[in-house]
Design brief:
Radius of gyration: 12 Å
Structural class: mainly beta
Order of helices and strands: EEEEEEEE
Largest sheet: 8 strands, antiparallel
Distance between the termini: 26 Å
Helix content: under 10%
Oligomer: single chain
Number of helices: 0
Length: 93
């Protein structure tokens, strides 16, 4: 899916209104630093995975705010492109 999220919580990784592509993800491959589309406490966020504990995934923005924990089954996809350029986990080595 492609969409243009609004807001500045993911700057400089993703700026407001940039075209973002989210693709399905094998939830077993989630890693800290991945940017994912996830439901946390009834709200859907495009935010970073900040921690993983078994089947639970913590979601936060790129400015240090934590939005909360969710389950792996509430992760809908991983960001794979921003403005049609490949996007990978900024924390990956």
């Amino acid at each position: 899916m492609r969409f243009r999220p609004t807001g500045n919580s993911m700057v400089p990784l993703i700026r407001s209104r940039q075209l973002v592509t989210v693709a399905p993800v094998d939830k077993a491959t989630l890693a800290v630093g991945d940017v994912v589309l996830a439901r946390v406490a009834g709200t859907v966020y495009l935010h970073k995975v900040t921690a993983i504990a078994g089947e639970r995934v913590q979601i936060g923005n790129n400015r240090g705010r934590i939005n909360g924990w969710t389950s792996r089954d509430r992760i809908f996809g991983r960001c794979v492109e921003v403005d049609e350029a490949p996007f990978t986990n900024p924390g990956a080595r």
